[in-house]
Amino acid sequence: MKNLLGALLLVGALTGCSNAKSYTNRGIEYLEKEDYDTALTEFDKALELDPDYAPAYLSRGRAYAGKGYYDTAIADYDKALELDPDYARAYLNRGLAYAGKRDYDTAIADYDKALELDPTLARAYFGRGGAYAGKKDYDTAIADFDKALELDPDYARAYLNRGRAYAEKRDYDTAIAEFDKALELDPTLAGAYLSRGVAWIDKKDYDKAIADYDTLIRMNPEDPIPYFNRGNAYYRKGGYAQARANWEKALEIDPNFDDARHNLRLLGNRGR
Fold first, then answer.
1. What are phi and psi of 178, to 5 degrees?
2. Nearest alpha-carbon partner for 148 in 116, 115, 121, 176
3. What is the pTM assigned to this prediction?
4. Strands (E), the chain
5. How many CB atoms lie within 10 A of CB 74?
């Protein structure tokens, strides 16, 4: 009888763990769709069944981070690491959360630990590169993006961020080549069009900048930033009427867009 009871308890524990994994996997599916609230519900169910299931804390932390709740996310990553001190991805994701809080030094320490545990984590090199860029250490950032791309040559966002680092160093031609490669790998990567447009403006090639912002506006007509930047490009080439129209559109979409309002004041009566 005692052996039977022990077996039943073991089956129950295994079933709870299995169900916790199922809820976690389902939550991850919602997480990938950026349906963070539904994902959180699934992770909560997983942890009700198995409060010691570290992957559920990791994934719930990702959902909280997706909602911008970095402190709550960090608390979940802390719990995951309490349960599994060698959980490289928990250090990685905690680093991302600290970077979201612009605590770059703490983020770098977490990325370092993640890479100590798993040197193949391209995402950790990518994150650490972003943290170094946040500290304006662009050469170190580029070295980390290089390593991320060595591990994952199809990592479009690593090309994007390496391009941004080169742009900060005013090496616009190299930056544009990086943005081109990012878009070759992922033609839907809006940030690459945006950053390439800025680089074209810095090179005084306003028509190419406008073409990139045209593409962004086709992709998402409700984003005010491409209108604002397209207005800047038109202004610099003397197209005051087009500049006005674009800044007014940016303000129509976002009435709190103070930079657009400021530019319109500076424009005065030009382009009316």
1. -65, -45
2. 121
3. 0.88
4. none
5. 22
Per residue in 13-57, pLDDT (tens digit) is 444 456 999 999 999 999 999 999 999 999 999 999 999 999 999
Domain boundaries, the chain: 204-272
Alpha-carbon torsion, ordered 78, 83, 86, 89, to 10 deg: -50
CA 129 to chain centre: 13
DSSP classification of residue 188: T
Choose among 61, 35, 68, 31: nearest CA to 47.
61
Residue recorded with tokens 């370092």: 112
What are the tokens at 48?
Answer: 């009700």
Cα dist from 17 to 21, 51, 63, whole Å? 6, 10, 21
Query: Could you tell me the CA-to-CA distances from 55 to 47, 77, 80 in Å, in that order?
Result: 10, 10, 7
The CATH code belonging to domain 204-272 is: 1.25.40.10
pLDDT recorded at residue 18: 64
Helix, strand, coil share of the chain (percent; to 5): 80, 0, 20
